[in-house]
Design brief:
Distance between the termini: 61 Å
Strand order of the largest sheet: 7-6-5-4-12-1-13-14-2-15
Number of strands: 20
Radius of gyration: 23 Å
Number of domains: 2
Number of helices: 11
CATH topology of the largest domain: Alkaline Phosphatase, subunit A
Bound molecules: 2-acetamido-2-deoxy-6-O-sulfo-beta-D-galactopyranose, calcium ion
CATH class of the largest domain: Alpha Beta
CATH architecture of the largest domain: 3-Layer(aba) Sandwich
Shape: globular
Length: 502
C-alpha cells in the first residue's frame, strides 16, 4: 500500500519523486577502532621501523591519514582506555593500571563512546583486552560478571579481562567465562596464594620465559603471571591462540552486522607482555618476540581489513588505528627485547617510553583509513584520543548528553584529514602531567625523581623536581629545558594546567 502511494505521488510530480529519493538517508558508516597495546610510534614501517615489516598497517597509512602528533591520553593502558571510552581525562577518576580483579571504573550512568553510538543506532562490540575492571569487587568468575561492557553500552563483548600478564587467564564472552565448569570453579586472588597451579617463583624450570618477581605468581601455559589463580582448567587460554581467536570473533561480529551500522572496538593483546606469539610468526622479525608480536599484530590488521573488503563494506567503514601508550622493551619477562632491538627505534624520533611524560609516552602511531572518503596524507594536527567521543558523535549525528565526555572536543575534520588544525592545548598524563600548547610543552614538577622500578626498565620518566619547558619544533627530543628562559610562559602554562586539574 505504501509503495503504491509513493508511485502515485511520483507520477503526479517529478519534484516530489526527487525529494522522496533524497530523504533516503545512507547507512551511517561503521566505526572500527583498532587499538594496539604498547605499540610505539616507530614500531610500524611507515614511521621508520627497522626490525620488522608491517605491510598491512603501512597500506592503511599510505591510503589514509598518517598522524605525527596524535596522542593517547596517558602513558599507561587503563587511563588511556578510560579516556578513549569516556571522553574524560583519566585523572578525573584517578584511573591507574588496574589489577585483574578490580571493579569496573566506568560509571554505567554516564555516556560512553559505545552507549553514545548505540543511541545513534549502532550495534556495538568490544573484542580483546579490557583492563577497565569488571563487576563491583569480589567478582565470582563462575557466574555472569557485571557490571561490565554491556552496562556501559556494548551489545557484544569478548574479553581478555585485564592484561595477558594478569590472572584470570580466561576469555569472557558476554561477561561469562568461556568454558566455565561448575565442577572446577575458578578462584582468583591478588593478595594471597591459592592452592592448585604452581608458581613461577618456585618453579622457574616450568617457564617458557623467565620473569621478574612481580610476574612470578601462578603459571598458566608456561608463563608466570601477576596474581594467583586456580581452577577453570578447560577455560584457560593459550597465549599463542590470541591472534586467531580474536580475529575470528571480529570477523563474525562484522559479518553478523554487515547490514547495519556497527562500532567495533578491537583491542589487541599484542604487543604487551608476555610476548608469546603463534609459531606462524616466530622469526618474522629480527627482534625476537617483541618484533614477532608486531608482525603478528600486522597480520591481524590485514585480516580485519580483508574481512571488511570481502563483505563489501570497506568503503562504509572508518578505521582508526592507534595504541594505548608508548613502547617498552623490558616489561617483566626475559624475551630478549632489549638485546635484539638493534637499530630499531620503538619510539621513533621521540624521547621516553611507556610510563614516561616525555612525548614517546603518549605520541602514538595513529592512522585514519576510510577508502574513498579520506584523502591520503600525513597530518601534523595535534590530537588526543579523548576527542574521539565528540568527533565520532559528530560523525554519527549524535548529541552529547550534558555532563558526558567533559574533556572531549569535536575535531572530526582533523581526524578525517580535512584540516591540520587540531587542538590548541592538550593534557598529557603519566606519573606527572604535561600541557601542550602548540609547539610548547610544559611538564609539571614532581618530587622524588624516577622510581626504581622505572629505572630498572630503563625508562626515562621525565619526572623532575623542577618545571620543564620544551619547544618541540626546535627540540623534538625534549633535551633543552627552556623553563629558566621563559618564566612567564612557564607561569602561564602551569596555571592553565592547574585549572584543568582542579
Ligand atoms: C605493570 C606491570 C607491567 C604491565 C603494566 C601494565 C609490573 C612490574 N609491571 O604493573 O608488566 O603489565 O603494569 O601495562 O608489574 S599496561 O599496558 O596495561 O598499562
Ligand atoms: Ca598498554
Amino acid at each position: 500500500m505504501k509503495n503504491l502511494l509513493l508511485t502515485t505521488t511520483c507520477l503526479a510530480t517529478v519534484t516530489a519523486c526527487t525529494t522522496a529519493k533524497k530523504e533516503v538517508t545512507p547507512q551511517k558508516p561503521n566505526v572500527l577502532i583498532v587499538y594496539v597495546d604498547d605499540l610505539g610510534f616507530g614500531d610500524v614501517g611507515i614511521n621508520g621501523a627497522k626490525g620488522v615489516q608491517t605491510p598491512h598497517v603501512d597500506r592503511l597509512a599510505k591510503n589514509g591519514v598518517n598522524f605525527t602528533d596524535a596522542h593517547c591520553s596517558a602513558a599507561t593502558c587503563t587511563p588511556s582506555r578510560y579516556s578513549l571510552l569516556t571522553g574524560s581525562y583519566a585523572f578525573r577518576n584517578q584511573a591507574a593500571v588496574l589489577p585483574g580483579d578490580a571493579p569496573l571504573i566506568i560509571d554505567p550512568n554516564k555516556g560512553t563512546l559505545a552507549s553514545m553510538l548505540k543511541d545513534a543506532g549502532y550495534t556495538t562490540g568490544v573484542i580483546g583486552k579490557w583492563h577497565l575492571g569488571l563487576g563491583m569487587g569480589q567478582v565470582n568468575w563462575n557466574e555472569e560478571v557485571k557490571p561490565g561492557p554491556k552496562e556501559i553500552g556494548f551489545d557484544y563483548s569478548f574479553l581478555i579481562p585485564a592484561t595477558g600478564d594478569r590472572v584470570p587467564c580466561v576469555f569472557l564472552e558476554n561477561q561469562r567465562v568461556v568454558g566455565v565448569d561448575p565442577n572446577d570453579p575458578i578462584t582468583v586472588s591478588y593478595s594471597s596464594r591459592v592452592d592448585g597451579l604452581p608458581l613461577g617463583s618456585e618453579h622457574p624450570e616450568l617457564l617458557k620465559q623467565q620473569a621478574d618477581p612481580q610476574h612470578s605468581n601462578t603459571i598458566i601455559n608456561g608463563i608466570s603471571r601477576i596474581g594467583y589463580m586456580s581452577g577453570g582448567e578447560k577455560a584457560l587460554w593459550k597465549d599463542e591462540d590470541f591472534p586467531f581467536v580474536l580475529t575470528e570473533k571480529a570477523k563474525t561480529f562484522m559479518t553478523e552486522n554487515k547490514d547495519n551500522p556497527f562500532f567495533l572496538y578491537f583491542a589487541f593483546h599484542d604487543i604487551h607482555v608476555p610476548r608469546v606469539v603463534n609459531e606462524q610468526f616466530v622469526g618474522q622479525s629480527t627482534m625476537g618476540p617483541r618484533g614477532d608480536a608486531i608482525a603478528q599484530m600486522d597480520w591481524c590488521v590485514g585480516q580485519l581489513v580483508k574481512q571488511l573488503e570481502d563483505l563489501g563494506i570497506a568503503e562504509n567503514t572508518l578505521i582508526i588505528f592507534s595504541s594505548d601508550n608508548g613502547p617498552v622493551l623490558d616489561d617483566g619477562y626475559a624475551d630478549m627485547a632489549v638485546e635484539l632491538v638493534g637499530d630499531h627505534q620503538p619510539a621513533g624520533p621521540f624521547r621516553g617510553a611507556k610510563y614516561s611524560i616525555y612525548e614517546a609516552g603518549t605520541r602514538m602511531p595513529t592512522i585514519v583509513y576510510w577508502p574513498g572518503k579520506v584523502t591520503p596524507k600525513v597530518s601534523s594536527a595535534m590530537l588526543t584520543q579523548v576527542d574521539l567521543y565528540a568527533s565520532l558523535a559528530k560523525l554519527a549525528g549524535q548529541e552529547i548528553a550534558p555532563g558526558d565526555a567533559p574533556d572531549s572536543q569535536d575535531h572530526l575534520d582533523a581526524w578525517l584529514g580535512k584540516t591540520e588544525t587540531g587542538r590548541e592545548s592538550m593534557l598529557e598524563e603519566a606519573y606527572t602531567f604535561a600541557l601542550r600548547k602548540g609547539d610548547w610543552k610544559y611538564i609539571k614538577p614532581q618530587t622524588g625523581g624516577t622510581p626504581d622500578w622505572m629505572k630498572n626498565k630503563q625508562v626515562e620518566s621525565g619526572l623532575e623536581d623542577v618545571p620543564q619547558l620544551y619547544h618541540l619544533k626546535d627540540d623534538l627530543q625534549e633535551s633543552v629545558n627552556l623553563a629558566g628562559n621563559y618564566p612567564e610562559l612557564v607561569e602561564e602554562m602551569a596555571a592553565e594546567l592547574e585549572k584543568i586539574l582542579q
